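mind reviewing this fold:
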Amino acid sequence: MAVYFVAQYVVNDPALYAEYSQGAGPTLGAHGAELVAFDVAAETVEGTPPGPQTVIIKFESAEKAKAWYNSPEYQKVVGKRLAATKGFAIISESMRPVA
């Protein structure tokens, strides 16, 4: 079942975020990931998000998403995103019915 890594945030340090982006992009291919959306000005229709920037990455499974996130390659750069932005990230299955 498809799984999505969804991050939404505001970028507070564009230079550091650019460094993160250059390092993070190449880590996706090795984990079979597909960049579905990268929107720097997502429109909010409900609630109060941390910021307008939204990233959605598709993986074949939660295991693959977590393997990517925890990989040494991604862990080398994720700290730059965390330092450059304020927001959140989640991993969500495409369809998880109520039990």
